[in-house]
Design goal:
Blueprint (H helix, E strand, L loop, with lengths): L23 E5 L3 H11 L4 E7 L2 E10 L5 E6 L19 E5 L5 H10 L5 E4 L3 E7 L5 E7 L8 H15 L6 H10 L21
Parallel strand pairs: 1-4, 5-8
Antiparallel strand pairs: 2-3, 3-4, 6-7, 7-8
Helix pairs in contact: 3-4
């Protein structure tokens, strides 16, 4: 069992700083046209602000609303071309971005990517369903949806409870039964969404 310093819990740690949420994530992009075509025109994120990169005015800073007021920003330059080859990231680099989609829209998301000629993989990740594709620069973009109805204000509590139940069961990773048991233990109605069958992808390469 983990000690107190590494235990998984939804309780705030005794730390000098407590963040209040995610404001924005910023990535390096190629040019504005390709970036807007992917994030706005395909994924449906409104472009809410466009201005110079204040640290380097030769570049443009694009701000996209990811759907809940939280922002993805991208530094772009018309001098840079897109490159969809897989990225090689080092320690400290971005492995992937993940955005939420509604469970009832998951099939439509796959169809839209098919229509756009973009490859993707779909996995059942135990506590959620995920689709993985790449943006115009080869960055892995995950589109995930909840397998069960989970109140946003109790998400951490539900996941931490599922973690404890998983550990007690000796399971390798959190699965449906652990999440269902967590919801029941916390007195939250168990509502499972109808999503396509998929492999877990455990140990696989996206």
């Amino acid at each position: 069992m983990p000690d107190d310093e590494t235990a998984v819990t939804a309780e705030r740690p005794d730390s000098p700083i407590h963040t209040t949420g995610t404001d924005h994530v910023t990535i390096w992009g190629s040019n504005a046209a390709d970036t807007i075509a992917f994030y706005r025109d395909l994924l449906g994120m409104p472009l809410v602000l466009r201005q110079p990169n204040l640290d380097d005015p030769s570049q443009t800073h694009l701000f996209f609303d990811t759907g809940d007021g939280r922002i993805l920003t991208v530094f772009v330059s018309d001098e840079r071309t897109s490159n969809q080859r897989p990225l090689r990231t080092q320690t400290g680099g971005v492995h992937h971005l993940c955005f939420s989609v509604a469970p009832e829209d998951f099939g439509d998301v796959m169809a839209a990517l098919d229509d756009a000629g973009r490859g993707y993989n779909v996995f059942d990740r135990g506590v959620f369903h995920s689709l993985y594709t790449r943006d115009n620069n080869g960055l892995v973009v995950e589109l995930s949806t909840d397998k069960y109805e989970v109140p946003d204000d109790r998400r951490g509590e539900v996941l931490a409870t599922a973690q404890r139940i998983r550990e007690e069961a000796g399971a390798e990773y959190a699965q449906d039964e652990h999440l269902e048991a967590a919801l029941e233990e916390l007195g939250i109605e168990v509502v499972k969404h109808d999503l396509p069958d998929a492999e877990s992808g455990v140990g696989g390469v996206r």
